[in-house]
Design brief:
With 370 residues, this protein is α+β, with helices and mostly antiparallel strands. The protein has helices spanning 2-31, 49-57, 92-95, 119-124, 151-154, 181-187, 208-218, 228-231, 233-271, 273-281, 286-322, 339-361, 366-369; strands at residues 35-39, 45-46, 61-76, 79-88, 102-105, 114-118, 136-141, 155-166, 176-180, 194-195, 197-202, 223-227.
């Protein structure tokens, strides 16, 4: 029973953390691409039409989008906010699902001054949509100005029209203002082929390593290609650390439960001492007598582990499909059935059970039987 409960608990908790991992990553996955090509040095690089055609021809690339990204100053009705202005082209909505995360309004139209802002930014600036009484202004420092005599000399300025508000997560909602690529390039004094990055959506089951190798060849190793995990390295590291910590904690619970198995096997050795002595006198070797209890302990562990896994899988699948336990009225506690977790739990139980059985069976010695 101890092994069954320990196995069940470990599998359910790992499944819960797999669900929380998927839930946490769903926010960043909404706005992050599968692959992102950025400059090795500086903030921008140049891309030629030939390079674009080469990217399009790469096997495994579904879509690509050119973007320009820079921190700028936004001003609205006496309030100001420094955040990222992200210029995007018409393919951007094919790269991720940010357009589906609109809290209000609609996605921007290209070749216009329309922008889509985050919910956090709209709150800080008290910004609404289609406000014709107050203008959303953006200020970008001009390049190469040695002597500044007026505000016009210091900044490039543009009036923007908010047409949509997106809501993803607290951090991301305060990070970006999406605008048209051409307008952003004009504000930053970029040329038409000067960009900050290329964001890429890959086809299902595409070989990312092969795509990265081809991208490095196209840009002659002057750019850096990052995967989605590398773009969110801190978040992935935190989630992996939490998963390992929980696994170790519940493995400790299983180890404590296996102490009962060791105790039970040792008591059985002492109880069957006379029977063992008889077998020994009939010619059985000590190692053969040890195998009896090693096999018995291993079978107890394997059978208990299988029963615990079956019960755990049933619980996880019920929660995953019927959403019995809820965090809020609309959000079920996230769990994910993962075959990898089955292998991890079963491997842990079998390994620890074998070690426990070996420790208990080692009490069968020649001295005990004399």
């Amino acid at each position: 029973m101890g092994i069954i409960v320990g196995t069940l608990a470990l599998f359910v908790v790992l499944s819960v953390f797999s669900g929380l991992r998927v839930f946490s990553l769903s926010f960043s996955n909404t706005i992050d691409p599968d692959l992102k090509v950025g400059p090795l040095q500086g903030k921008n690089f140049f891309i030629s039409p030939h390079q674009e055609s080469q990217i399009k021809a790469i096997d495994g690339v579904a879509y690509y989008s050119k973007i320009v990204e820079e921190r700028v100053l936004f001003f609205f009705d006496g309030k100001e906010q420094v955040t990222y202005l992200k210029g995007v082209d018409t393919n951007y909505t094919k790269i991720n699902d940010v357009a589906k995360s609109l809290f209000n309004g609609k996605w921007l139209r290209h070749n216009t001054a329309e922008v889509v802002v985050g919910y956090g930014i709209s709150q800080k600036l008290s910004l609404g949509l289609f406000d014709f009484n107050n203008s959303l202004e953006v200020y970008v420092p001009r390049k190469g100005k040695a002597v500044i005599e007026s505000e016009e000399d210091a900044f490039n300025k543009s009036v923007l029209i908010p047409t949509g508000i997106y809501a993803i997560s607290e951090d991301l909602d305060s990070k970006y203002v999406f605008a048209d690529l051409a307008i952003t390039q004009e504000l930053l004094e970029y040329k038409s082929n000067q960009i900050s990055a290329v964001e890429i959506k890959t086809k299902p089951n595409a070989d990312e390593n092969a795509i990265i190798e081809k991208l490095n060849g196209i840009f002659q190793n002057k750019t850096e290609v990052k995967t989605r995990a590398q773009l969110n390295a801190t978040l992935y590291k935190m989630l992996n650390t939490e998963n390992i910590a929980v696994y170790l904690i519940f493995t400790l619970v299983i180890i404590i439960a296996l102490f009962n198995l060791i105790g039970a096997l040792i008591m059985m050795v002492l109880d069957k001492k006379n029977n063992l002595k008889t077998l020994y006198n009939l010619g059985s070797e000590i190692k053969d007598l040890k195998k009896i209890f090693l096999l018995q302990g291993s079978l107890l562990t394997i059978i208990g582990g299988i029963i615990g896994l079956i019960l755990g899988i049933i619980i996880v699948l019920i929660q995953q499909h019927f959403k019995i336990i809820m965090i809020t009225e609309s959000l079920a506690y996230p769990v994910v059935f993962n075959f990898q977790n089955v292998l991890i739990v079963f491997g842990t139980i079998v390994t620890l059970g074998f070690i426990s059985s070996w420790i208990a069976s080692s009490r069968v010695t020649k001295k005990l039987l004399d």
